[in-house]
Amino acid sequence: MNQPKIVIIGSGASGIACATKLLDYGFENVIIVEAESRIGGRIHTIPFADNVIDLGAQWCHGEKDNMVYELAHKHDLLESTGDVYESYQCVRSNREVVPEDVSQRLKDIVNDSLVTRQMELRNCNGSLGSYLNNKFYEALRRPENSDIDMAIAKEFFENYKKFENSVEASDTLDDVSGKGYLEYWECEGDILLNWKDKGYVEFLRLLMKSREVKKEWGILEKRILLNKQVATIEWNRNDCCVQIRCVDGDSFVADHVILTVSLGVLKEQQLKLFEPKLPVEKQRAIDGLAFGTVNKIFIEFPQQFWPDKWTGFTMLWRDEDIQEIRGTSRAWLEDVFGFYCDHNQPRLLSGWIIGANGRHMETLPEDEILDGCMFLFRKFLQWDIPEPSNFRVSKWYTNENFRGSYSFRSMYTEEVGTSARELAQPLSVVTTKPVLNGEPTVEPLYNQSRCDKPIVQFAGEATSDHYFSTVHGAVEAGWREATRLADFYGMLRKNCSAAVKSSL
Length: 504
Known about the structure:
Number of strands: 22
Protein name: Spermine oxidase-like
Domain Amine oxidase: 14-485
InterPro entries: Amino_oxidase, FAD/NAD-bd_sf, Flavin_monoamine_oxidase
Radius of gyration: 25 Å
Shape: globular
Organism: Musca domestica
């Protein structure tokens, strides 16, 4: 049969995985159109300080049933981040370091709740926030914890909730569905495996087989068109094809389009992107699934000013201190919840910021952001802090090609009753004509048999039932859609062969 033309929109992990899998299946007429001037999507590794940093995806989350791990570990590309995100210091806004025995007991309380969540949240009708709040303060009331200062406990819990929001990409844990939280499946094994001194871009090179082919984009060389922002997708044409029109005036007619853009882009553009508009069920999925913002702050110093075994700190704001910045130009600093060390970058501290304040930070001049971070260091830490030598922040929300970081299941998701499966459902046409031009021998088949042709397909992490928000979820979604087309054309070949045999 003639080769169908397949256009993939987006060269993130899902788009690249889909394209490489299609080539493995024998499809040759495959291209990717990418709005950015680079490939990778929410994987964005850049040179910085002594090595590289990942502005987006950073870790391979788990080992068992994680295809990222399965591909990467055999090349010795991964290593454990260790206990950086467990052994951090808790520092109050008066520079008081919470005693290690107290901070460890508070960490144990929130970590213990992780064990019981899987069972208890099944019967939860509320938010993750209300559940965690009840669990935390219930544990504090136990006799063995009666000596913990309640002010410190409250400060710790407020910081912990920000950390949890960074995991979910939510503005507040009251937005996160308790039941929906369980839809995410955590892979067994180390959930914070980093890419040593190479960054997550190395995984894309594995997918594209850059090492074997000795080209930057490997087997996708000359198949990726950068700076091609899509303006419209016309998907209900009489010829059972799809026309893609780009902002620069270029257009493509394809047999299949596979859309791997972020849920944030779909939320913002769906009403003007699709002609005609999407079916109601698809619109509900895009509207109902949640998508949030998490940003990173990287600061390089001329030399390490912290002790060798120090792994970082989280900021516990006293009430009187947080009131001093609320309502001021530094109010956004409230949602910077911690800075951490990286043993591959010995002069670097990396910080995290969530939610509305994270989005606001993106709009500020970089010197104002840096000034705010230095304010935090000097307010919380007891050491002399040198002036930094380099600085970089991520900006996922203000970039119109992303509009945020990753997806989660909100209370609104639960209310409207939608799911990733509805988002992943392709737009199909029912045809009784040859699916491809140049196939007159199979035309009698279509006079007798109707065929659902998937013409617009949806991939990306938000379409994953259980691995949303992850690279391995995005890759599996890309593979899923490639397999959908392989199965479709395998069925066609089987039917065509049967039709020919019956006519003999």
